[in-house]
Amino acid sequence: MFRWIPFLTYAIVTAVTPGPNNIMSMSNGNRKGFKKGVTL
Description:
Elements: H1 4-16, H2 20-32, H3 34-38
């Protein structure tokens, strides 16, 4: 059985903290726009 509580806790903490992946995603979205920033 998949454990939702640890997964959701990790997902929320990762989404809120300004780590390098979030900063890179924000930069790509800012430069290319949302649609092009989401796709590789």
